[in-house]
Design a protein that fits this description.
With 340 residues, the protein is mostly beta strands. The protein has one domain: Beta Barrel (AttH-like fold), CATH 2.40.370. The protein is 6% helix and 52% strand. It contains 2 helices and 20 strands. The two termini are 36 Å apart.
Length: 340
């Protein structure tokens, strides 16, 4: 495979593997980028998990890519993607518009837009941004900083994909997370677990990060009636995992307690599991595997939450798990639910 063909695929790996890249030359010190993750739940029962961004892969140029999955109510998933490594300006000067031609994320107005215009799938979403961003302390993951731009913003629009007689109206809630790693994310994180509760008057984002040295770092942000209500380390967070001999355990349940809430989450088996390197040539895939063997998954999750204002919430949220590499034996999860 020529470099001309390899670069677009490797650019997609850069996004899908959460800021990971590998080439036949070592990435330069400027590797890193800006990435936006979107996770949505719609009243129709559809889920959306998408990632888009720009990054320096070490060739001295900037590449852009996006990938997303629409998960139907029956659990089937449909992928869309776009790479654009031709060197043109993908990101606006203010960083608010990412334009990959057929996939666009525009945060330049109070009503944000996310649109996909692929032949096999068309998605047009308007996102009403109004809750404000939540940002972890700088020492949580200093080499892999992130902030939650929206925990549960109203989103509406339409979805069409091949086989549908007409576009389906969508209405629901969406979370938007921004990541800006200072290098390759594989150099600082092994796994990122994220849980999203997406309700009209309440949003919750919880993450557990596993670092290269085995530390487990946890952080939580909530919004209530359109305003950030809490951000910080939860009082307790107990994750159970389904054991996996290959080193990619899948989550089974989560119990949470924080100053303003308690809750439990039962996590279904993944509706989407994806190896971002599967489309690479054998030679490039081998080169990539020297730095990263990524795996991404998304699951529906039933949650029950009790808030300090007396509200009880129950519904379906979304869990996303991003591995940059399999867990080593010494990083094995302490709580395992058994089974796959």
């Amino acid at each position: 495979m020529s470099h001309g063909t390899s670069r677009p695929l490797a650019a997609l790996v850069l996004i899908l593997a959460t800021s990971l890249a590998a080439t036949d030359a070592a990435p330069d010190s400027g590797a890193g980028g800006d990435y936006w993750d979107l996770v949505a739940r719609f009243d129709s029962g559809h889920l959306l998990v998408a990632m888009a961004g720009v990054g320096n892969m070490g060739w001295g140029d900037t590449n852009a890519a996006a990938v997303g999955f629409v998960i139907d109510p029956d659990g089937s998933s449909h992928r869309f993607s776009r790479t654009d490594p031709d060197g043109r300006q993908h990101l606006s000067a203010d960083g608010r518009r990412l334009d990959l031609r057929t996939i666009v994320l525009d945060r330049g107005a109070p009503l944000w837009r996310f649109s996909v215009g692929k032949q096999e799938i068309k998605l047009d979403l308007a996102i009403r941004s109004d809750s404000g961003a939540a940002r972890p302390a700088a020492d949580l993951a200093p080499s892999c900083p992130f902030d939650v731009l929206e925990t549960s913003a109203p989103a509406s629009g339409t979805l069409w994909r091949q086989g549908m007689p007409e576009a389906l109206p969508l209405r629901g809630q969406i979370a938007v997370v921004h990541r800006a790693p200072r290098g390759l994310e594989a150099d600082c994180l092994v796994r990122r677990f994220e849980f999203f509760a997406l309700e009209p008057d309440f949003g919750l984002y919880f993450t557990e990060l596993v670092t290269q040295d085995g530390k487990r770092l946890r952080w939580l942000a909530t919004s209530s009636r359109g305003r950030i209500s809490y951000e910080g380390v939860p009082t307790t967070a107990e994750l159970q995992w389904r054991e996996d001999a290959a080193g990619y355990p899948k989550p089974a349940s989560l119990r949470l307690a924080a100053p303003r809430l308690t809750g439990r989450v039962e996590i279904a088996k993944p509706a989407m599991t994806y190896d971002p390197t599967e489309r690479l040539s054998p030679a490039l895939r081998l080169a990539v595997s020297l730095r990263t063997r990524p795996l991404l998954s998304a699951s529906a999750a039933h949650f029950e939450l009790t808030l300090d204002d007396g509200r009880y919430l129950a519904g379906t949220g979304v869990v996303r798990v991003s591995y940059t590499n399999p867990l080593s034996p010494e990083n094995r999860d302490p709580q395992l639910a058994g089974g796959r």
